[in-house]
Amino acid sequence: MTSGQAGTPARRYEPTKAVDAVVIGTGAGGAPLMARLAGAGLSVVALEAGKWWMPERDFVTDERGQSKLFWNDERLSDGEDPVHFGRNNSGTGVGGSTLHYTAYVPRAQPDDFMLRTEFGLGSDWPIGYADIEPYYDEVERVLGVSGPSPYPWGPPRAPYPLAPLPMNGAAQLMQRGCATLGIRTSPAPNAALSGSYFQEGIGWRPACANRGFCQAGCSVGAKGSMDVTYVPLAVAAGAEIRPESFATGFEVGRSGRITGVVYMHGGQERRQRCRAVFLCAGAVETPRLLLLNGLANSSGQVGRNFMTHMGLQVWGEFEEDVRPYKGIPGALISEDTHRPKDAGFAGGYLLQSIGIMPVTYASQVARACGLWGEALLSHMRRYNHMAGINILGECLPYDGNYLELASERDGRGLPKPRIHFTMGENERRLCAHGDALLREIWTAAGARDIWSYQRTAHVAGTCRMGTDPAQAVVDADGLAFDVPNLYISDNSTFPSALGANPALTIMALALRTADRFLERLRRQEKR
User: Is-contact 125 465, C-beta < 8 A?
Assistant: First the structure.
């Protein structure tokens, strides 16, 4: 026995002996799943490309110091609207992107799963809200979500475990502007603790200190990232975590089943034999790994249907002392625009207030407004009086938006991923609708010098789930149509982008995938 993270006993499995499951990735898709599998008594090895950080030692209130949490390997962007990769849509380290996510965890609504039925565009999910609802409940309890009860939108639900977090300056201003225009708002559901919280198997976690640097890693453990929630549950149940282990390939037997996973650790190639594989590396690295190995792609859909959320931001200057770095970043939400009545587009978007760190803000205003030198310095002197709102909007899948392997190679000698992305007319109309509304809100709230920043956020869709093996990569349980013991559990399986931040849905789907796998095992044992 060796010592695991924070002194937890860690199991070590023999690479030459087959474990029940190898999990590739320890973020929102991998951590809940491996906790469930290990808790059921299965032998589990998790491979994580990044390091195993200790928050109290490694996380600091400094943006540049936390760049180590982002997936900084180069990804090539193409198309008319190339996507910015790195800190806004991927992460590295035990806990994955949840190490630096802002903990904004709204649920998808029932009609989010039926986009094609509603609008005749995009794709429906092979599962519905009822299939995932109990897992939403469970994840919210484990994370200790702070939020309002009742929640104003969507089906009735169990009360959130904790009361809402305090509203920061931007949230108070957004609330004022929305109230003037008759737009409903609510404190947002956040996976950050408004009070100390006890979770069996994890222990006590302290309340949020409202320092506002959630994207730089939570040094106190109040944010519901995987490293302080599902990872400890997995380790306590016997799972082995192997950090700094980059998966590069698979060993496949004559039956078409994967018998082992190949990975790099310490500059050496290693292998772990296994009976099942759960690929949870995200919407870029998951299809990249499959394409590198020519696996699970008889449909030709691996890497296709790339989507990203529309993340338009609108900023304004206020007389009030806003201090945008303080408090939980996304403190206020509105879903009144989930399906706008006056919209000429499919889908919809939600509104959220923005907290932002100074270096991030400076980079955005430089790009959006063309400010450099003294003009940028002059603007930044007013940083404490700036407030922002953003939309989180749908994106349809298009044939021209996809991921492929480039001829250019990375430091490991592997082809880099190249992602093609161009917004369609639907996305342009959605963003124009959002831009006009956000400007109205800020004008009503008393803002001056209003400006907008067009951006995209989370990525999804490159190994989508479905019922037709010719049109999808995995079935409704996350099982690959082509490989009988390969499951995918991350945002790559999303058939549509959803009108909500993806983290909560990824975690809920991970638990559902684990349960469906365990049910399959039990049926096989009975036979």
Answer: yes
Neighbours of 110 (CB within 10 A): 14
Please tell me the predicted confidence (pLDDT) of residue 6. 46
pLDDT in tens, 301-320: 999 999 999 999 999 999 99
Closest to 148 measured CA to CA, from 210, 108, 205, 106:
106
- Cβ atoms of 503 and 477 within 8 Å: the answer is no
Q: How many CA atoms lie within 13 A of 126 on its CB side?
A: 18
CA distance 452 to 437: 12
Residue 33: CB partners within 8 Å, gap ≥ 6?
23, 278, 280, 489, 510, 511, 513, 514
Listed residue (135, 9, 121, 30) closest to 512, CA to CA: 135
Q: Give every CB contact of residue 52 below 8 A, 6+ residues apart in sequence.
A: 5, 93, 94, 227, 241, 243
3-state secondary structure of 428: helix
pTM: 0.96
Residue of 427 and 61 predicted with greater confidence: 427
Q: What is the CA radius of gyration of the chain?
A: 22
Any residues with CB less than 8 A from the CB of 418 and at least 6 apart, and which?
A: 75, 76, 77, 78, 403, 404, 405, 406
- Side by side, which strands form the sheet with 246-252? 246-252, 258-265, 268-273
Please answer whether residues 474 and 493 qualify as being in contact, where contact means their C-beta atoms are separated by less than 8 angstroms. Answer: yes
- Confidence class for position 112, pLDDT limits 50, 70, 90: very high
Max Cα distance, the chain (Å)? 74
Q: What is the DSSP letter of 505?
A: H
pLDDT per residue over 73-106, tens digit each? 889 999 999 998 876 778 889 999 999 999 999 9
Closest CA to 131 of 118, 112, 146, 149: 112
Q: pLDDT band for 498, please (50, 70, 90 cuts).
A: very high
| DSSP reduced 3-state for 485 | coil
Residue type present at position 45: V
% of the chain beyond a pLDDT of 90? 89
pLDDT at residue 61 is higher than 90: no
- Number of other CB atoms surrounding residue 9 within 10 Å: 11
3-state secondary structure 234-271: HHHCCCEEECCCEEEEEEECCCCCEEEEEEEECCEEEE
DSSP for 48-110 reads -SS----HHHH--S-TGGGGGGB--S--EEESSSPPP-STTT-B-STTGGGGTS--B-PPPPG
Phi, psi dihedrals of residue 409, rounded to the nearest 5°:
-110, 155
Going 45 to 47 to 48 to 53, the CA torsion angle's sign is positive
pLDDT at position 317: 97
Q: Residue 192 corresponds to which tokens in the numbers above?
A: 């950050």
Give SS3 for 522. helix
Residues 237-269 have pLDDT tens digits of: 999 999 999 999 999 999 999 999 999 999 999
Distance CA 337, CA 499 (A): 10
